[in-house]
Amino acid sequence: MTIKERVKGVLELLDAHYPLDGKCYLDYQEPYELMIATILSAQCTDERVNLVTASLFKKYPSLHAFAEADVSEMERDVKSTGFYRNKAKNIIEASRVLLTTYGGEMPSDINELTKLAGVGRKTANVIRSNIFKEPCVVVDTHVKRISHKLGLTKNTDPDKIEQDLMKVLPKSKWISYNTQIIAHGRAICKAPTARCEHCFMTHLCKFYGK
User: Longest Cα pair distance anywhere in the chain, in angstroms?
Assistant: First the structure.
């Protein structure tokens, strides 16, 4: 099977089983809230992040409020998401830079976004795809794990996986692939134990039966 045939099979099956899946799994209203939620999502589940931000966005109702927050208090507010010291520091610093450098407006350029504290390519691409509707490949834990199983990449580094997927996936599918793979990872291809008996892509999986 060629990589082109493999990709075609994967995309057709994802569209068939998750046809309406195109949503962002993080709750937000404003662009800066999505930035903060995505920073918090590192090494943390979206469900946990949404629980934390439900109260966090009420306590800090504006970008200015985040920029002026006390770092020790912010640490306590986000502690349950893990790595809370770095996350608290990055949220406050990124909020300050958004205000002072960008006038409170979220930049769309990936090079500008990745200058913000705590914003790597994954966070930047989440912002670009959801806020600006720019075609992007977002490599989270589900995309990393399942893309490898499906033979779409041999790399383990997220940046290299992103480049691999950009080469093999049609640009029109970059955004939907991420959300569909997340849905598949939550429902069937779970970590650490996948529900292979329920999977519709076992014939495309290089790890099935191993």
Answer: 56
Residues contacting 97, CB < 8 A, separation 6+ = 115, 116, 117
Residue with the two structure tokens 């629980």: 51
Same domain, 47 and 94: yes
Whether residue 192 has a cis bond before it, omega within 30° of 0:
yes
CB 76 within 8 A of CB 35: no
| CA dist., res. 100 & res. 27, Å (int) | 26
State whether 14 and 51 are in the same domain: no
User: Which residues lie below 8 Å from residue 157, measured CB to CB, with a gap of 6+?
Assistant: none
* Other CB atoms within 10 Å distance of the CB of residue 171: 10
Indicate the pTM of the whole model.
0.89
The predicted-structure confidence for 164-197, as pLDDT tens digits, reads as follows 999 999 999 999 999 999 999 999 999 889 999 9
| Residue where a domain stops, chosen among 116, 131, 146 | 131
**Residue 90 and residue 150 in one domain:** no
Task: Name the H helices within 132-200.
Answer: 141-149, 158-168, 174-187
Catalytic residue positions, numbered: 122, 140
The number of angstroms, rounded, from the C-alpha of 13 to the middle of its chain's C-alpha atoms is 22
Same domain, 146 and 192: yes
Q: Closest by alpha carbon to 105, among 29, 30, 53?
A: 30
54, part of any domain: yes
In three-state secondary structure terms, 194 is: coil
Domain of 173: which CATH number? 1.10.1670.10
- For the chain, the domain total comes to 2
